[in-house]
Amino acid sequence: MKSEIIAVGSEMLTPFRQDTNSLYITEKLNEIGVNVAFKTIVGDRRKDLVNAIGAALRRTDIVILVGGLGPTEDDLTREAVAETLSLNLRREPAQVAALHARAATWRISMPENNLKQADVIQGATVLTNPNGSAPGQWLDTTFEGYRKLIMLVPGPPHECHALFDTECLPRLRDELPPRAIAVRTLKAAMIPESQADKILAPIYTEYKDVETTILAHNGDIQLTLICSKPTQAAAKQRVEELAGKLEEALDDWLYSSEGESLEQIVLYYLGLRQATLAVAESCTGGLVAQRITAVPGSSRSFLGGAVVYSDPLKTSFANVPPELIAQHGAVSAEVASAMAEGIRKRTGATLGVGVTGIAGPTGGTESKPVGLVYFAVSDSQKTDSFNRTFRGDRDRVRQWAAQQALDLIRRKLM
Q1: Which residue, 321, 281, 327, is CA-closest to 304?
Q2: Do 41 and 13 touch, CB atoms closer than 8 A?
Q3: Distance between CA atoms of 162 and 164, rounded to whole angstroms?
Q4: Residue ending a domain, choose from 194, 225, 256
Q5: What predicted TM-score, i.e. pTM, was given to this entire model?
Q6: Chain-centre distance of CA 216, in angstroms?
Q7: Most buried of 115, 199, 327, 357 (most Cβ within 10 A)?
Q8: Is 242 in contact with 212 (CB distance < 8 Å)?
């Protein structure tokens, strides 16, 4: 069955608020075999809400509306659903009593406008909301001759998630035929999205019963495989078969077959090799260290490092000879190598990493443009250096550089 989630609230059409509830609901729906075909964000305008609800009911079987159930004038979800279905609203005495009781616990007199939260759509079942004053509603109805399931849930995340889990999911399970979903996430580093799709599309398009999505972000490619079947074994078999072929095609671009982050994989290899790591960062400003230390238990393998932004600190903290900087410039293979070797020796780590570059937007030259970053990885045997030029603004260059540094460490450990 196809579903649509409608997030209600003008605040989510501004740069300041995001709809996160739909991500949670999508995950829960997928677990019971329900595909989310559409997500819509609608402002607090009744006409727009009615139009969005009507469109959702025409193209999906299940419609879940999140938000717009409060007491204010712009909380219009109940009214819009009732208008779309040509149904009446009734004021539920039990909900009125519950609102008065809730106000009494706060030792306040209940404002009159709160009573609209007791308005229930004709034929709907009230869904208890123990975490807030606005109850949800469940409506099993028909629209233009077809059966539809409609859910109204409150917008605050702690209310939305709890009510959806306890009230909506059990009812959905009772209504749906048994289905099982298998999900697998593969991740690859530093392969261009177009190249990844060229390699992988001929493979995954042959699996019509497995939904494959590709997400590219800052040097990371994430492939999510989802398959729904009557049994878990059947769904898992199809996902595993496709995953095996994609893994083979990605070769050493692939770093994770179970959804782990790149920093988790780096720490896994460090632990496997009983190795330790230290970093000296310039243009990335500590991003490599931040990502590694975000993983619990990273202290077993990550010793630390230094943000050596200025040339004197490159010398004093990472033992880079001043004459090397003067001869080759702070952004060079020679200085990156010296940073990696210097931080390794200074900390006693098995591996040392150096990152130096021009993040921009200024500071570039014809021979060393903005986005040029040098990397080096050093162990007791040798030091390997490498450079990449990244396009984009300052933040993008820094994020890509951190990703590249972590991938170089992974490949060194492999």
Answers
A1: 281
A2: yes
A3: 6
A4: 256
A5: 0.79
A6: 12
A7: 357
A8: yes
